[in-house]
Design brief:
single chain; 141 residues; alpha/beta; Rossmann fold; 6 helices; 16% strand
Length: 141
């Protein structure tokens, strides 16, 4: 039996973070969620011994962070031999075509634009939760 997939959420808006977690839980996802509201602590964690030892994970990544760009985090994760297989779901308000292409070029697995309206946002995250309930994540080696 493989270890459960840990969800690492990098999201600086605490309201969005709560909404994301609530709607992931509504989809019956009970996986551990580790939340960071700044990029550097998230990177420190992702490259830590604890993460190396604990198997598969999924990264939910906002692009607009107070201390660095989410695309910088994405580039670092995907250029690391150990972390590059970790699925990264970009979850952001940015719907700029160039930015979307850049994220896919860097290796993001899914790019979701956060709807502005609360109900639409909640619905999108519920659907993400359903997606997470059926997806498989590779081991981090």
């Amino acid at each position: 039996m493989s270890a459960p997939v840990k969800i690492v959420m990098v999201e600086d808006d605490h309201g969005h973070a709560k909404l994301i977690e609530k709607n992931i839980r509504r989809a019956n996802i009970s996986n551990e969620i580790v939340h960071f509201d700044h990029g550097q602590p998230a990177l420190d964690y992702l490259f830590s011994e604890e993460v190396k030892a604990n198997g598969p994970m999924l990264i939910l990544l906002d692009l607009n962070l107070p201390d660095m760009s989410g695309t910088d985090i994405l580039a670092e994760v995907k250029s690391d031999d150990r972390l590059k297989r970790a699925p990264v779901v970009v979850l952001t308000t940015t719907d700029d075509k160039t930015e979307i292409q850049r994220c896919y070029d860097l290796g993001c697995n899914v790019y979701i634009t956060k709807p502005v309206d609360y109900e639409s946002f909640a619905g999108a995250i519920r659907q993400l939760g359903l997606f997470l309930s059926v997806m498989q994540a590779p081991e981090i080696e």
